[in-house]
Amino acid sequence: MSHTISFSSQTYIKDNPIIIYGASVYGELAYISLRQMGFVPDFYCDKSKKRKEYLGTKVISPEELDCFKESNIIIASADFFGEIKKELEEKGCSNLFDMTEMLKLELPKEQLSNRAREMYDNKQNYINIVQNQSEDRLVFNRIQYVVSERCSLKCKDCSHLMQYYQKPEDIDLYGYKPAFDRLLDQVDCIAELRILGGEPFMNKTMGQVIHWYHDSNKIQNISVYTNGTIIPCEEILMSLQKEKVKVHISNYKINEDKIKKLIKVFDEYQVRHFLRDYDSWQDAGGVEFRNYSLEQKKEVFSSCFERNGFTFLKGRLYRCPREAHAMNLKAMPDVREDYVDFMYENGTSKEWKQQLKNLQNCSWLEGCNYCGGPDNHVQSIPAARQISQPIEYKPLY
């Protein structure tokens, strides 16, 4: 796999069209960067069939790139960078660019959406992903490390299925540490390790994950995702001060007083943090079986915003956080092909590496059969609608 070139006024192919692949948040950053450099993109390219225009620019499909193989194509995605690059190479597109130099520009933050400001603030994550792309290396753009099933909110539409847990528990981090160590032994790089729940601060021992893995040269950044309802204990606050760590605070507009108190504490402890406002979410629906055809499962998977949401839960690495919790809840069958189990010491490194590559290369999951198919670009329901009781469902066994 060849490396991309960082797009700049010196590296692009003059007189050839400029196409931004990715009509979403990184696409917004690419657009603002290009305008600052004195360029205007000719097209966006995106898999979404629902997007015909983005930021006043026409959106074309990947199939239409057959007519633009000599164009300057900027890959505007972090999670799907390798996937897009491989697709473009197979199409014969030769002038592939990344956004490394573009993200180093001083962009006017007042012109960016809230989500774009977050990605711009975390631009090193994109740069790390670009720098680690190689066929010879086993690289994960992000792995989500679940530390608790418990949550301090009761969101009706949680895509990670917290609303179905009748008796949620904290994860035994010490008990599953050997399994994650085995996983870490197999990989070459994890660009971002995300610590989440539920609400991660519900687990008083969650700081141990940071202590264990902060100094690993395979993990480049650690993010902690919180809903802002809990001020963590002193031990956790001390762990959050570490260099690689940043806290993402989700503001659903229902607990802003608590968030203000949390931010004040973070400022006192010099904890790096970012506040993001959420007004709406993608709708994934319930956990009922949908009896999709193979083509329908592939369609749901290809448009899903979590299709690269690799999730470590109770010793297993899943491709999708929703499926991880659906299996944990026994709301769907235990499908061995949809995860890699690191709980058993008798697995060989060669076997685990092959299973991880298979997981990275899959084009659908059986878990797609238990999902309404949240579109990557369509936020259709209000964020964080609260319920008083867990939602009842019928476990398979």
How would you describe the overall organization of this protein?
The protein has helices spanning 25-37, 81-91, 100-103, 114-121, 123-131, 173-186, 207-213, 234-240, 256-269, 294-302, 321-328, 349-361, and strands at residues 5-6, 18-21, 43-45, 53-54, 57-60, 72-75, 96-98, 139-140, 143-146, 189-190, 193-196, 222-226, 245-251, 273-277, 280-281, 311-313, 316-318, 339-341, 381-382. With 397 residues, it is α/β, with parallel strands linked by helices. It is built from twelve helices and 19 strands. β16 and β17 form a beta hairpin. The longest helix is centred in the middle third of the chain and has 14 residues, at 173-186. The strands form four sheets. Strands 14-13-12-11-9-16-17-18 form an eight-stranded mixed beta sheet, with helices on both faces. Strands 1-7-6-2-3-5-4 form a seven-stranded mixed beta sheet, sandwiched between helices. The protein folds into two domains: 5-131, Rossmann fold (3-Layer(aba) Sandwich), CATH 3.40.50.720; 139-382, TIM Barrel.
